TrEMBL record:
Pfam families in UniProt: SLT
Protein name per UniProt: Lytic transglycosylase domain-containing protein
Domain named Transglycosylase SLT: residues: 49-142
InterPro entries the record matches: Lysozyme-like_dom_sf, Transglycosylase_SLT_dom_1
Signal peptide stretch: none
UniProt organism field: Jeongeupia naejangsanensis
SUPFAM superfamilies: Lysozyme-like (SSF53955)
Similarity comment: Belongs to the transglycosylase Slt family.
Source taxon at top rank: Bacteria
PANTHER family from the UniProt entry: SOLUBLE LYTIC MUREIN TRANSGLYCOSYLASE (PTHR37423:SF5), SOLUBLE LYTIC MUREIN TRANSGLYCOSYLASE-RELATED (PTHR37423)
Length: 169
């Protein structure tokens, strides 16, 4: 996990063709226009989500659903218990897999941590997304949070383009 966090690579869309990347960006950008009005920031967030999710073997639309529930796409969100950024990453993860100088409110850093952590939980739970989401939220064994994320994912961020089969359930 630490190695995944430490690899500072510039985010870019990863699709088999540029046409597919353009189609995904256009569709997801339209879905997020009200939540992230600034087009530059919206494209930056979407590019980072798609890159980090794909890099971690996650469906980018699942990650969008998780962000929808966790922070409502507020990159500066800080929860009452101290979770930070889009994916609401707890600062203790910096000690566990990163370094204290990494800014969890930075879009790319936050997404790298969040996707790496969710992938870790999926691995622990042998691919069981429901249980992995429960672990991510600290609510393992309770259905509310996994159902909220799954609902946000399926109701708001479904994309039927090619190459959309990573970590779906």
């Amino acid at each position: 996990m630490s190695r995944a966090i430490g690899e500072g690579v510039q985010a870019k869309l990863i699709f088999p063709t540029q046409a597919e990347a353009d189609a995904w960006m256009a569709e997801m950008s339209a879905k997020l226009e009200k939540r992230i009005p600034d087009e530059f920031m919206r494209r930056k967030v979407l590019t980072a989500v798609q890159y980090e999710a794909t890099r971690a073997g996650l469906d980018p639309q699942l990650v969008l659903g998780l962000i929808h529930i966790e922070s409502g796409f507020n990159r500066y969100a800080i929860s009452p218990v101290g979770a930070r950024g889009l994916m609401q990453v707890m600062p203790f993860w910096q000690r566990v897999i990163g370094t204290s100088d990494q800014n969890l409110l930075d879009v790319n850093t936050n997404l790298r941590y969040g996707c790496t952590i969710l992938r870790h939980y999926l691995d622990i739970e042998n691919g069981d997304l429901f249980r992995a989401l429960g672990r991510y939220n600290g609510s393992l064994g309770r259905a509310e949070y996994p159902n909220l994320v799954y609902g946000a994912w399926k109701n708001n961020y479904v994309w039927n383009g090619a190459g959309n089969s990573i970590a779906q359930r």
